[in-house]
Amino acid sequence: MNGDILRVTATPAALDLIATLQSEYGPVLFHQSGGCCDGSSPMCYPQGDYILGDEDVLLGTIGGAPFHMSPSQYEYWKHTQLIIDVVPGKGGMFSLENGRGVRFLTRSRLFTDEEAAALNLRRSPV
C-alpha cells in the first residue's frame, strides 16, 4: 500500500507553474526551505544549480521535478503529506518563480493512522 501514498503532491496551479519554469529553464528541482509549518516556501532551482546534501531526503516528484528536504526538516514533516500550491506573492530570492507575482507555498495534512502505519511511522505521544 505505501507505494500509493504520496509524501508530496501539487495542486494544478503548482503543476502549471512547474511546467512553465521547465519550459524556460529545463529540468528543475525543489528543496523545502527551513520553516517547519504550513506556509513555508519550497525553493525551485534548475537541476545542477543547487547542490544537495548527502543526507537530503527525496520525498518524491511533482510535475517531474524531484522534491528534497534536509534530514532535520524531514523530522518535522515526516507525519504529513506536503501539498505544494501557488499563491500571490513574491517568491524566494533565488527560487525560479521570483518576479512573477506568485510563489510556491507548502501546505500539509497529517497522514491518517492507516497511512502512517503503511509508511512505518510512529506517532509521538501527545
Question: Can you characterise this structure?
Answer:
This protein has 126 residues and is an alpha/beta fold. The chain is built from 3 helices and 7 strands; from the N terminus they run βαββββαββα. It has a 4-stranded mixed β-sheet with strand order 3-2-5-4. It has a 3-stranded mixed β-sheet with strand order 1-6-7. The mean pLDDT is 89.
Terminus-to-terminus distance: 27 Å
What is the percentage of strand-forming residues? 25-35%
Largest sheet: 4 strands, mixed
Report the C-alpha radius of gyration, rounded.
14 Å
What oligomeric assembly is this protein in? Answer: single chain
Strand line-up across the major sheet: 3-2-5-4
Give me a quick take on this structure.
Helices cover 21% and strands 33% of the residues.
Key terms for this structure?
single chain, 126 residues, alpha/beta, four-stranded mixed sheet, three-stranded mixed sheet, 3 helices, globular
